[in-house]
Amino acid sequence: MPTEASKVSRAGIATSATGERHIPSSIRPDGSVRKEIRVRPGYRPPEDVELYKNRTAEAYKNRGKGGVPGADSVSATSDPPSAAANKNAKRREARKKAAASATTKNDAPATTTANNQSPASVEPAKQEPVDPEVDKSKEAKKLAKKLRQARELQDKKEKGDSLLPEQFQKVIKINELIRQLET
């Protein structure tokens, strides 16, 4: 009774237009008729389960089929560029021409085109004026922290704990840290 619109899987399960799944009726070799068997929703027979493919193994199998690394493939050269790619190429050419003409004229237009092109190039210029007092206070905090850690290690050594060679070097440098902190 399968309709023309039914789909048949590898296991022989037909799906009707209403979404019901069943194994169609068939005739046995002795001439008797097998009746249609309804398949419960959600059941997937082993024949219909896709074979598991390990991505790493697939990549290993296909490792040499990509052609020469870095070379353009034949299909890439035959495809015409899209409208967006054409537009981007025109913009790139216009930027190059504007930059070239700006460098030949004078420096003022060159800075305006540079500002329009990449705001990231302007960022480092803003960071240059650093207050020396702020820099000194940061350095003082850093030295104070090192001194505090070295004194903690010295106390640990006086209690009888063993120190690593790097920790022992820090204890030795306490006087040097004090001198740097005073300057």
From TrEMBL:
Basic residues: compositionally biased ranges: 88-98
Ranges of Polar residues composition bias in the record: 111-120
Chain intervals with Low complexity compositional bias: 78-87, 99-110
Pfam families per the UniProt record, alphabetical: Mago-bind
Compositional bias of kind Basic and acidic residues: 31-61, 125-142, 149-161
GO molecular function list: RNA binding
Alphabetical list of SMART domains matching this protein: Mago-bind
Domain WIBG Mago-binding: 19-45
Disordered as annotated region, ranges: 1-164
Gene Ontology cellular-component annotations: cytoplasm; exon-exon junction complex
A single GO BP: exon-exon junction complex disassembly
Extent of the signal sequence: none
Protein name: WIBG Mago-binding domain-containing protein
